[in-house]
Design brief:
Shape: rod-shaped
Largest sheet: 8 strands, mixed
Protein name: LysR family transcriptional regulator
Order of helices and strands: HHHEEHEHHEHEEEEHEHEEEH
Domain HTH lysR-type: 1-59
Number of strands: 12
Strand content: 15-25%
Radius of gyration: 32 Å
Organism: Nocardioides albidus
CATH architecture of the largest domain: 3-Layer(aba) Sandwich
CATH class of the largest domain: Alpha Beta
Number of domains: 3
CATH topology of the largest domain: D-Maltodextrin-Binding Protein, domain 2
Pfam families: HTH_1, LysR_substrate
Structural class: alpha/beta
GO molecular function, one term: DNA-binding transcription factor activity
Amino acid sequence: MDLLRQLNHFVTVAEERHFGRAAERLHMAQPPLSQQIRRLEAQLGVDLFVRTTRRVDLTPAGHAYLERAREILASVDGAADEARRVAAGVVGHVRIGCVGSVTYSLLPALSRRLAEELPGVDFSFRGEMLASEQVEALRAGSIDLALLRPPVDDGTIRVTPLRRDRLAIALPADHDLAGKDRIRLRDLAGTELIVHSADRRSTMYDVVRRLFDDADLVPRIRHEVGETSTLITLVAGGLGVAVVPEPVRALALEGVVHRPLVRPVTFIDLAAAHRADRDEPHLARTLALVRDLTTC
């Protein structure tokens, strides 16, 4: 007989204080149950029960053994429940890295949705991460899921497309172009720009350079910054204009207006990424929830 069944039989007899009632509860005959308890006592080298013709009572050793037996059975039940919860993906820990536009536009709704639908999963967030930083963090294991702007040139990272965001222009509210409903890229010729940092391998920096190259324009870059919040703050300060993903509008800052970019109408992808060797159920459930939220 395995140990857990042995412990369960002992606890049942201890609770019923009667072999017949315990046997009925366990759906077995009384003589085999009595023999099993005798074998247990022989293995332990102590008497667990004082037997009479009417009932059985625990010895002091039996009381001590009962307490530990219940603890063991409870811990086994708890472990089984925990294993089922892990397999279902409803417990765990997920660290999520976000690019700047996601930090302000998607993260508030995402954090609420995760708390509501996966309350047993512990989530933490790192905002204002460039895509290159997120890929390095995924490799190092310091984040588990990245919400970033592709491309990702790394075969160890699995990328899941989420949506396409239109590009827009963020301008100081008193800028000459702020009165336009829409802005063409050629309208920005000679205009001072604020861009994400080239040194930190920003995806948006490459997008802006490519836009201007394709239009045979030379960008007049005044400032390079690392964070989207800093970029929009400098726009509000009148230091230049910026090409941004349209969701950056969520970072509502006084003194900044946003206008759609036309000619060309350009989009930038948003994707989720994680290490290809990661397949934990709670990570898969988190990714599914992110995909659902970004396709609503």
